[in-house]
Write a sequence for this structure.
């Protein structure tokens, strides 16, 4: 009798479990949605050489853009680029307009609390740049009253300026790093804070700038996806690992971090 009751209970439990399994809603999967849609929607900076910019022929290119293109090709989907100012990149991702942000973005604790980041795609040394005739030799000398330092607004470069040069006056710019270089070259800033790769481009572009001694900070730079896009995040990590192993990604980084791309674009 007792055995019969146990079998009846197990039968009822099995039916209930099966019903619950059928009733479970399908979980949203961003990676499957991308493949089904046939499009990878990527938010990039409107103007942020060398990561994203319009070249001489009017074509959008740059390190982050070209990496995103290879990702889309490997997924077998079309790449759809969405242009935003720096401050608009994460809002575009969080609103669902974009599937991914491809930029030189540092995965800070504050940002990582909002979105998921891939493994680092690149690294950046943050340096200070001054006009050639500047009296300063090291970035530490900039930390005093009366010195005006420029950086891209809402960026980690601006945060580095606030933290490491608290006595100086920080001026934040929009529209990418180009306005910082222009202000430096025209004498409207005493110094600018940016990545070493960007600084190297400015040395060529403007001709009257130099990099101060000392690396202020070395930062990992990653791509961002939505807060629940776990499969897409794992796919990016796998892609980064494979493309690092076969030297595809390091080769791209070397090309864009040099000044060689200027001859082609």
């Amino acid at each position: 009798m007792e055995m019969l009751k146990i079998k009846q209970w197990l039968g009822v439990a099995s039916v209930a479990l099966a019903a619950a399994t059928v009733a479970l809603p399908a979980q949203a999967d961003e990676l499957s949605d991308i493949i089904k849609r046939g499009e990878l929607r990527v938010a990039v900076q409107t103007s942020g050489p060398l990561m994203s910019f319009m070249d001489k022929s009017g074509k959008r290119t740059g390190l982050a853009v070209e990496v995103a293109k290879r990702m889309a090709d490997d997924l077998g989907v079309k790449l759809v680029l969405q242009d935003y100012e720096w401050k608009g990149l994460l809002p575009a991702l969080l609103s669902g307009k974009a599937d991914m942000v491809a930029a030189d973005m540092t995965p800070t604790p504050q940002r990582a609390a909002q979105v998921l980041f891939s493994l680092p795609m690149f690294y950046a040394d943050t340096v200070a740049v001054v006009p050639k005739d500047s009296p300063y030799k090291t970035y530490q000398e900039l930390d005093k009253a009366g010195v005006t330092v420029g950086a891209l607004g809402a960026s980690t470069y601006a945060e580095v300026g606030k933290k490491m040069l608290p006595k100086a006056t920080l001026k934040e710019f929009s529209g990418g790093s180009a306005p910082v270089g222009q202000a430096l070259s025209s004498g409207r800033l005493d110094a600018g804070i940016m990545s070493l790769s960007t600084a190297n481009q400015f040395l060529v572009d403007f001709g009257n700038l130099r990099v101060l001694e000392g690396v202020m900070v070395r930062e990992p730079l990653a791509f961002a996806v939505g807060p629940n896009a776990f499969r897409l995040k794992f796919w990016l990590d796998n892609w980064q690992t494979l493309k690092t192993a076969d030297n595809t990604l390091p080769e791209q980084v070397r090309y864009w971090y040099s000044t060689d791309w200027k001859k082609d674009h």
Q: What stands out?
A: Residues 185 and 253 are 26 Å apart (CA to CA). The longest helix spans residues 2-23.
